[in-house]
Amino acid sequence: MATLSQFDVLTLRRDFPILQQEVHGKPLAFLDSAASSQKPRRVIETLEDYYRRYNANVHRGVYRLSEEATFAYERARGKIARLINAPSQREVVFVRNTTEAINLVAYAWGGANIRAGDRILLTMMEHHSNIVPWQLLAQRTGAELVYLPFDGQGRLALDDLDRLLDERVKMVAFTHQSNVFGTINPVTTIVERARAVGARVLLDAAQSVPHMPVDVQALGVDFLAFSGHKMCGPTGIGVLWGRRELLNAMPPFLGGGSMIDLVELDHSTFAAAPARFEAGTPAIGEAIALGEAADYLREVGLATIHHHEQELTAYALTRLAEVPGLTVYGPPAGLDRGGAVSFTLAGVHPHDVAAILDQEGVAVRAGHHCTQPLHRVLGVPATTRASFYLYNLPEEIDRLVSGLHKARQIFA
Ligand code: 7TS
């Protein structure tokens, strides 16, 4: 497998204008890509090029600019289909983000398929965006939510599937990679178990599509949700992939222009997917720029990016073990461990840790990372999190570790 040398990463970093700056007089070490990644110049330029040269609404005009915009928008859909190995680009629905993708499925698929007494299986490590939409569905329908726990190392307790997974479960929705623990969950194992009871599977791929090869056909899931802004693309654009027959059997989520077949005064009929789920004017330039981001990631190579992040993570876990009073959550370095590392430092509030690191030019996130149920299990209200991407260097982890020593001294 190809690996990224120090030289390769230094070269890649030149693609990211934002990384060339100093913060508080120190070079920026950006360790918060799990929240939102930085953007390479060609993605920024693609967005600008759209607004400068061929901005026009899609799917409507017969004039040159609109045709060009429509062509680029639909070509971007094809690039996303290739990125995740979707059988057809008609299975790729552009939405705003992971949150909207999951809400779409919970509302449209859930409304048509979930009844009182049915169960939806989630896990205790989900982001709020893969909990709250299902709670809303459960409240509307009388369905019940059940949660798969995780063990002391932040891995899903698969033994508990026997207890939790039966014919009442109609949907299993879980994250591919935890945004807190970095755990990469065993998707195919869970899919197999879900299939055995006839349940559908939605995979929250917000933290996996940006960081590793993801193949929807190999994984065998029914729905996949991810965000553009975490994968070198713009904000305001994300993706729902779904099996075509499922999408076309689902009622609409939002009604309006572009999603219809015929509109009568008292009722309407609807277009097939993906148009059915893209009501109104979409984020055209953002979708086109997301296509460029997908090409960029494919050119660097997702397996290469994944390998680089696993090396950085292994290095970070070794270096962090040297810091007295530091507790790191999640699995040890290994194949099921991606590049998000959350920790607490005894006697120092996670927000203070992040503020001291900021003074050193090191950007990390502190808080519950939209995973309050997970943090309740850990027994801490918040953690500090460092997360890695293709442009990070081992020396940035060294600076993280020095900053943590400084935080200890300040609060000693
Ligand atoms: N699912 C997971 C696993 C996530 O990590 C996030 C965002 C989302 C869903 C929601 O994505 P959105 O684009 O719809 O907001 N995670 C984080 C994070 O860890 N810190 O900030 C956002």
List the defining traits of the structure above.
globular; binds ligand 7TS; seven-stranded mixed sheet; Aspartate Aminotransferase, domain 1; alpha/beta; single chain; Aspartate Aminotransferase, domain 2; 40% helix; 412 residues; four-stranded antiparallel sheet
What does this structure look like?
With 412 residues, the chain is of the alpha/beta class. The protein has two domains: 6-30 and 301-411, Aspartate Aminotransferase, domain 1; 45-299, 3-Layer(aba) Sandwich (Aspartate Aminotransferase, domain 2). It is 40% helix and 17% strand. The strands form five sheets. A seven-stranded mixed beta sheet has the order 4-10-9-8-7-5-6, sandwiched between helices. Strand 11 and strand 12 (268-270) form a beta hairpin. The longest helix has 20 residues, at 64-83. The relative contact order is 0.17. The structure holds ligand 7TS. Ligand 7TS binds next to helix 4.
Question: Any idea what the CATH superfamily of the largest domain is called?
Answer: Type I PLP-dependent aspartate aminotransferase-like (Major domain)
- Treating each run of at least 4 consecutive H or I residues as one helix, how many helices? 14
| Overall pLDDT score | 97
Q: What's the total number of strands? A: 17
List the uncertain runs.
none
Alpha-beta content class: alpha/beta
Strand content: 15-25%
The radius of gyration computed from the alpha-carbon positions, rounded to a whole number of angstroms, is: 22 Å
Q: Shape from CA axes?
A: globular
Hetero compounds: ligand 7TS
Strand order of the largest sheet: 4-10-9-8-7-5-6
CATH architecture of the largest domain: 3-Layer(aba) Sandwich
Q: What distance lies between the first and last C-alpha atoms, to the nearest angstrom? A: 45 Å
CATH class of the largest domain: Alpha Beta
Q: Percent helix among the residues?
A: 25-40%
Within the CATH hierarchy, at the fold level, what is the topology of the largest domain? Aspartate Aminotransferase, domain 2
Describe the main β-sheet briefly.
Answer: 7 strands, mixed
- Indicate how many domains the architecture comprises: 2
